[in-house]
C-alpha cells in the first residue's frame, strides 16, 4: 500500500461511491475513462474503456479499485483493466442485472456487504486480487448465474473476453456444455428477485456452483441456507445451432418451448434500413429477416440491435418475425433471435452468402441449420461486400485483428 490511507480508483462518474469510499477510510481517486466514444458496437466500446482504465490505473498509483458502470460493456471493460493491473478489486452492482449476477458469482461483487468498505479493506490488505479469483471454476459459476437470470448472448461475449484476459483456456468449449444445461429459473424484475436478489439466486443453484473464494469470503459461506422457489414462468433459453457442412454456428435466444424456426429470408446489411422496412409495413409475418455486417469486424465491435427490437415490439412483429444476425439481440425483450452468426458476414461467412428467397430450417432440438439451396450453388456464391465502417485509428486497428464473438471479440 502506498500510504496509511489507501488510494482506491473509482470511475469519475460514480460520485456516490466516491463519497462512501471516503467515509470508509479511503482516498477515492477518479479514474479517467474515455471522454469521446467511438462509433461502433459493444465489444469496441468495452476495449476502449479497458485500455483507458488500464492507463489510469498505472498513472495514478492506486492501491485498489471499485468498479462501477451502468452499461454492461463499460463494466466488463473495467473488469478487463482490473485483470491487467491485478489490483485488489471490488465491483459494485451495475445497471445490467445479468452481468451483476455473473460478477457476483465470479467473486467480484459482495453478496451481503456494501461494496465500498469491502474495497477499502481489500486495498489495505492487498488481497484478494482478480487474478486469484477468476479461473475456470469461477467462470463456470458466473456463466450459470447469468444464464439462470435470463442473460443473453451479450453476457457470453463479455464473459469470454474476461476468460481470455484471465488466461483461462477452453471457455468456448465450456459454453457448449453449460449453456444447454442451464435454464432461466428467475425473472430479473420479479418480486421474488427483488426480495432475494443474487444471494437467493446463487443459493438456488446450490451444488452446481463451485465453492470459490470471493471478495467477501468463500462463496457458500455468504449464501443463505434456504430460499423459497421462485414462481414458475415461461422464460427464454439459449441454444447453439450449426450448419454442419460449412461449420457456421449461431446462438439462438428463443421462448423456452420453441422447437424449430423456418421461413424465407429477406437479406439486408443495415439495421437502419431494416427498421425503415418495418416502419413502412414492408415486412410480412414469418419472414426471416437477415441483418449482416453487425459482427466484430463488420460493425465494428458487434452491434446490439436495440432499435430493431423496439420497432418489432411496436408493430406487433416481435414474436412472429425471427431475426438472423451476426450481431446481438437487445438485452431484454421478446422475440426469436438467431444471433452471433459465425463466421461473420464481414469475414465472408455463410450469412454473407444468403440471398432473398432462400429458405432456412433451424432445428433447436437437433441443433442444426439447413438451407433449401443446393450445396454447390451456395458455395459458388460471392459473399456480399461490406463498406469499411471503421475508418482510421483505434477502430481500424480493432477491425484488423478482432476475434470472433464467442472468443470475446477483443483484440487478437
From TrEMBL:
One GO cellular component term noted in the UniProt record for this chain: cytosol
Keywords annotated in UniProt: 2Fe-2S, Amino-acid biosynthesis, Branched-chain amino acid biosynthesis, Iron, Iron-sulfur, Metal-binding
An MF annotation (GO) of this entry: 2 iron, 2 sulfur cluster binding
Residue ranges annotated for the Dihydroxy-acid/6-phosphogluconate dehydratase C-terminal domain, each copy included: 258-409
Domain of life: Bacteria
Family annotation (InterPro entries): Dihydro-acid_dehy_C, ILV_EDD_C, IlvD/EDD_N
GO-annotated biological processes: branched-chain amino acid biosynthetic process
Lyase found in the keyword field: no
Residue stretches in coiled coil: none
Protein name per UniProt: Dihydroxy-acid/6-phosphogluconate dehydratase C-terminal domain-containing protein
Organism field: uncultured Rubrobacteraceae bacterium
Amino acid at each position: 500500500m502506498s500510504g496509511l490511507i489507501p488510494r482506491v480508483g473509482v470511475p469519475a462518474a460514480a460520485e456516490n461511491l466516491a463519497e462512501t469510499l471516503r467515509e470508509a477510510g479511503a482516498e477515492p481517486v477518479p479514474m479517467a475513462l474515455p471522454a469521446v466514444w467511438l462509433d461502433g458496437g459493444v465489444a469496441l466500446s468495452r476495449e476502449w474503456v479497458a485500455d483507458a482504465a488500464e492507463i489510469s490505473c498505472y498513472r495514478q498509483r492506486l492501491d485498489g479499485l471499485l468498479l462501477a458502470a451502468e452499461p454492461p460493456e463499460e463494466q466488463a471493460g473495467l473488469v478487463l483493466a482490473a485483470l491487467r493491473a491485478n489490483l485488489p478489486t471490488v465491483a459494485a452492482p451495475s445497471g445490467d442485472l445479468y452481468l451483476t449476477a455473473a460478477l457476483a458469482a465470479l467473486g467480484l461483487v459482495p453478496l451481503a456487504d456494501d461494496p465500498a468498505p469491502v474495497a477499502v479493506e481489500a486495498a489495505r490488505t492487498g488481497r484478494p486480487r482478480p487474478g486469484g479469483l477468476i479461473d475456470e471454476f469461477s467462470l463456470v459459476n458466473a456463466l450459470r448465474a447469468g444464464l439462470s437470470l435470463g442473460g443473453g448472448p451479450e453476457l457470453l461475449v463479455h464473459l469470454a473476453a474476461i476468460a481470455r484476459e484471465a488466461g483461462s483456456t477452453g471457455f468456448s468449449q465450456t459454453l457448449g456444455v453449460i449453456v444447454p444445461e442451464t435454464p432461466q429459473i428467475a425473472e430479473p424484475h420479479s418480486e421474488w428477485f427483488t426480495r432475494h436478489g443474487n444471494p437467493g439466486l446463487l443459493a438456488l443453484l446450490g451444488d452446481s456452483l463451485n465453492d470459490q473464494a470471493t471478495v467477501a469470503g468463500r462463496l457458500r459461506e455468504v449464501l443463505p441456507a434456504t430460499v423459497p422457489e421462485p414462481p414458475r414462468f415461461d422464460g427464454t433459453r439459449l441454444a447453439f445451432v450449426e450448419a454442419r457442412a460449412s461449420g457456421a454456428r449461431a446462438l439462438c435466444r428463443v421462448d423456452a418451448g420453441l422447437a424449430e424456426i423456418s421461413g424465407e429470408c429477406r437479406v439486408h446489411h443495415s439495421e437502419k434500413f431494416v427498421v425503415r422496412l418495418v416502419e413502412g409495413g414492408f415486412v410480412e409475418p414469418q419472414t426471416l429477416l437477415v441483418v449482416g455486417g453487425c459482427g466484430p469486424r463488420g460493425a465494428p465491435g458487434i452491434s446490439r440491435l436495440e432499435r430493431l427490437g423496439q420497432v418489432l415490439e411496436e408493430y406487433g412483429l416481435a414474436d412472429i418475425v425471427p431475426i438472423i444476425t451476426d450481431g446481438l439481440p437487445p438485452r431484454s425483450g421478446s422475440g426469436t433471435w438467431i444471433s452471433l452468426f459465425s463466421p461473420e458476414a464481414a469475414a465472408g461467412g455463410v450469412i454473407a452468402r444468403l440471398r432473398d428467397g432462400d429458405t432456412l430450417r433451424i432445428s433447436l432440438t437437433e441443433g442444426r441449420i439447413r438451407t433449401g439451396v443446393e450445396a454447390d450453388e451456395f458455395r459458388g456464391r460471392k459473399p456480399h461486400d461490406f463498406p469499411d465502417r471503421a475508418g482510421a485509428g483505434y477502430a481500424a486497428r480493432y477491425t484488423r485483428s478482432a476475434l470472433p464473438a464467442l472468443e470475446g471479440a477483443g483484440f487478437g
